[in-house]
């Protein structure tokens, strides 16, 4: 009898849990529909509020950040739009719409970025890594490694020379490719976890030579500019670096980490 009650209790708990999850999913879908309707009706501020609430309370996704960025772009909040697109890009770097919208938003900024020459192998590596997100590269790594192991197992078990040669060669090829995809996956993981870039949110920022108001003025950057954070050990100041190698200090409050 106790076992029957235990089973019934377990089933009831599972049913309640599933029902709650289904209700929460329904609520999120309703909020998304409301936000989408607000965007379509050109009520962009309402769309921004709803999308922001969903991200804050329900979790993030590339689609949510892109939709929020689109709404910000419509009300000329360029820095916030770029911030959202950059966050969407980290989550899904292969999304062409995210890439296009990000580049479009950048054209509306005051600072026009200078082209930085880099080795073609670096450019090729960045593009290759961006073909898939972390999960995609991870799944591909596991699949390739499994195929490599299968090839090696066939090599050791088969008695035919031709089969052994083919399975060995394919095993090596799959294993080598799995190493590359593992590197791509870990690169995406570091990009996702180590947020060392930020977007300038203030209209105009004077970059200082030292972390103080009394420091020498080095140059001025404007909202929407992407910077790399070099040193954030201080409470009110961070050291930043631009894509052209220029460095300096700005206050924490003028920027937001991607």
Overview features:
7 strands; 8 helices; 62% helix; alpha+beta; Serine Threonine Protein Phosphatase 5, Tetratricopeptide repeat; two-stranded antiparallel ribbon; 13% strand; 5-stranded antiparallel β-sheet; 3 domains; SH3 type barrels; 258 residues; single chain
Describe the fold and architecture.
Helix content is 62%, strand content 13%. It has 258 residues and is an alpha+beta fold. A hairpin with an 8-residue loop joins β2 and β3 (217-222). The protein has 3 domains: 2-106, Tetratricopeptide repeat domain (Serine Threonine Protein Phosphatase 5, Tetratricopeptide repeat), CATH 1.25.40; 120-193; 197-257, SH3 type barrels. It has helices spanning 2-40, 44-58, 62-74, 78-91, 96-106, 120-129, 134-157, 161-193, and strands spanning 197-200, 204-208, 217-222, 226-231, 237-241, 247-251, 255-257. 27% of the residues are buried. It has a 5-stranded antiparallel beta sheet. The protein has a two-stranded antiparallel ribbon with strand order 2-3. It is built from 8 helices and 7 strands; from the N terminus they run ααααααααβββββββ. The termini are far apart.
């Amino acid at each position: 009898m106790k076992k029957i009650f235990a089973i019934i209790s377990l089933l009831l708990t599972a049913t309640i849990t599933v029902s709650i999850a289904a209700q929460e999913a329904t609520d999120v879908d309703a909020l998304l529909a409301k936000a989408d309707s607000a965007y379509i009706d050109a009520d962009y501020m309402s769309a921004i509020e709803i999308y922001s609430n969903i991200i804050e309370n329900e979790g993030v996704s590339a689609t949510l950040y892109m939709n929020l960025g689109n709404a910000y772009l419509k009300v000329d909040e360029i820095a916030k739009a770029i911030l959202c697109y950059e966050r969407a890009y980290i989550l899904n770097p292969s999304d062409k719409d995210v890439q296009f919208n990000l580049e479009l938003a950048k054209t509306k900024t005051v600072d026009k970025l200078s082209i930085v020459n880099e080795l073609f192998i670096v450019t090729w590596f960045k593009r290759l890594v961006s073909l898939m997100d972390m999960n995609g590269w991870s799944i591909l790594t596991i699949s390739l490694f499994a195929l490599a192991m299968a090839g090696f197992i066939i090599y050791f078990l088969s008695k035919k020379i031709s089969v052994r040669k083919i399975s060995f060669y394919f095993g090596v090829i799959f294993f080598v490719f799995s190493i590359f995809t593992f590197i791509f996956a870990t690169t995406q993981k570091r990009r996702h976890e180590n947020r060392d870039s930020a977007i300038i949110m203030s209209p105009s920022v004077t970059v200082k030579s030292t972390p103080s108001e009394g420091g020498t003025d080095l140059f001025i950057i404007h909202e929407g500019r992407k910077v790399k954070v070099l040193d954030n050990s201080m409470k009110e100041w961070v050291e930043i670096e631009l894509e052209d190698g220029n460095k300096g200090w700005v206050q924490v409050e003028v920027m937001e980490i991607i």
